[in-house]
Amino acid sequence: xxxxxxxxxxKGSVGVVVLNRPQALNALCDAMIKEIASALDAFEADDxxxxxxxxxxxxxxxxxxxxxxxxxxxxADSFMEDFISKGWVHVTKCRxxxxxxxxxxxxxxxxELAMMCDxxxxxxxxxxxxxxxxxxxxxxxxxxxRLARFVGKSKAMDxxxxxxxxDAEEAERIGLVSRVVPVVDIVDDAIKTAERIAAMxxxxxxxxxxxxxSAYETPxxxxxxxxxxxxxxxxxxxxxxxxxxxxxxxxxPEFSDS
Length: 258
Ligand code: CO8
Description:
The protein starts with 5 loop residues before the first strand and ends in a 10-residue tail after the last helix. By secondary structure, the protein is an alpha/beta fold. It has helices at about 30-45, 65-70, 75-80, 85, 90-95, 110-115, 145-150, 155-160, 170-175, 185-200, 200-215, 220-235, 240-250, and strands at about 5-10, 15-20, 50-55, 60, 100, 105, 120-125, 125-130, 165, 180. Helices cover about 45% and strands about 15% of the residues. A hairpin with a 2-residue loop joins strand 1 (about 5-10) and strand 2. It contains 13 helices and ten strands. It binds octanoyl-coenzyme A.
């Protein structure tokens, strides 16, 4: 597929998706969402890829969903198209780890897209916000749900009801992002992090991702039970034996992803 709104490349074992609509601060138009979905599906199917990074530019990860495409929609249009459910779910359904490497504006749907990824590494110039209320609407791709679960009710209410921006330092303090790095290092840092993950046993990576994600879907007792069962199942993998024997023999493990 030829992409018009994103760039893609493979760096070693890492698939990289770069949002690329600089003229609109990477506003997420419908075509771009479809392209992101297609790129993720392609990386998911590529055995050479072990982890994925989604990034934007130094100025904007994404300044939201494209307002010009939404302005004149009717209720019937949006309900019948169900445009939020279609492309976006590819991000959350991806079984390989997806890291959001964000800089500049991370607003509205941009912040929601970042939160759909497995974790967020932020540049020191990143600005997060859910400004939909200033447009007379509300977050629609997880902004009221994921944000509340990730940073708590008080901060989610503050962000969604005032529409204010939050800087990277605040975002790290409240746990929205895993760490903050200088903007010049953001992509390299995310790719190095993804490479480190891609070098682990792939089935174990997927099991851990699934387990952590289930923490947001299940009560604690069920989540703990599912985690224990998943842990026991790692003993059916060659990689569990290899990892532990390599530790005892004081050598690096050679995982076979089996
Ligand atoms: N959509 C479309 N175009 C955008 C968007 C956007 N979200 N953000 C920026 N642009 C465009 C601008 O229109 C401008 O284009 P042009 O040069 O042709 O006029 C260009 O990008 C550059 O933007 P600015 O000139 O405004 O740049 P500034 O540096 O002055 O300001 C800001 C940057 C503060 C980020 C400003 O652009 C801004 O406020 N953008 C909108 C932010 C926003 O409100 N985002 C939330 C959008 S809504 C959303 O994401 C979820 C909505 C859910 C609704 C569900 C649908 C039914």
